[in-house]
Design brief:
By secondary structure, the chain is mostly helical. It contains twelve helices and two strands. Helix 9 runs antiparallel to helix 10. It is globular and about 80 Å long.
Length: 264
């Protein structure tokens, strides 16, 4: 999944995160070069990568499912059925199996569950509150998916830290939080970095194949001569390479273009 520095800048990023990303990229200003979420994650970490999802078009379904997944990791810490039901409804909504009204009702119920846990005492109470907060975030408003994903990540981390409780030392609690954060990052890479980029690339490949099939059909139908046919095929392939700068590294791109007689 790709965005651009200009798209990120249009969302008013924090100064520290923006400076860090530019430094990682070796740039001093924004541009329209495709920028993958993998690169952002490697540079700035999970929270900034989550924030940058708002600079990516579409993929609300995947963002919602990621939010649900984060909340599910601490679901066992709450026994309140309203929180559990909210996660189920949120997942069904993401998959087109629940209405916005059902999501709103589930979100309100999850909010009530979180409110009821506000007075719970001690580490166990804190864990329950955080777990219910994560469920509430997962069933949040349909138009606030990125914000709610970040809330769910933070709430799940709080729940893990609290679940370690008074019986564990600071080092154990820190290790538990680190482990939870690592799992969230792995899931983020799975859902937004690897699979979606492969999906986008597959769609572009399919479109290229269709265009090439048309060129072949025109050639076989004697609509174009052999020389023209070759030029068209080369042009399509060169266009594909240049359109996929964010998915093809520079060396591979140069080799491909050279193969088609194009020197950089």
């Amino acid at each position: 999944m790709n965005t651009t520095l200009n798209q990120i800048r249009s969302k008013s990023p924090c100064a520290d995160g923006w400076t860090k990303l530019l430094k990682h990229l070796g740039k001093t200003q924004a541009d329209d070069e495709p920028l993958s979420l993998t690169t952002i994650l490697d540079s700035n970490g999970l929270e900034d990568a989550l924030w940058c999802l708002q600079a990516v078009d579409g993929h609300a379904r995947e963002i919602r499912l990621y939010t649900v997944w984060c909340a599910r990791q601490v679901q066992h810490l709450t026994k309140d059925q309203r929180s559990i039901d909210a996660l189920d409804v949120a997942e069904r909504f993401a998959n087109g199996q629940a209405t916005k009204n059902e999501l709103d009702i589930a979100g309100d119920a999850a909010g009530d569950a979180a409110g009821d846990a506000a007075g719970a005492a001690g580490a166990a109470g804190a864990a329950v509150r955080a777990a219910r907060d994560a469920a509430r975030a997962a069933a949040g408003a349909a138009g606030a998916a990125v914000r709610d994903a970040a809330r769910a990540v933070r709430a799940a981390a709080r729940a893990v830290r609290a679940a370690a409780g008074d019986a564990a030392g600071a080092a154990v609690r820190a290790a538990a939080v680190d482990a939870a954060g690592a799992a969230q990052e792995v899931k983020f890479r799975e859902m937004f970095c690897d699979i979606l980029e492969t999906k986008e690339l597959k769609e572009k490949n399919t479109n290229l194949i269709r265009r090439l099939e048309k060129q072949c059909w025109d050639y076989q139908s004697n609509c174009v001569d052999a020389e023209k046919f070759t030029q068209l095929i080369v042009a399509e392939c060169v266009t594909w390479v240049n359109d996929n700068l964010g998915m093809v590294d520079e060396e591979a791109r140069a080799d491909l273009l050279k193969h088609f007689g194009v020197e950089l």
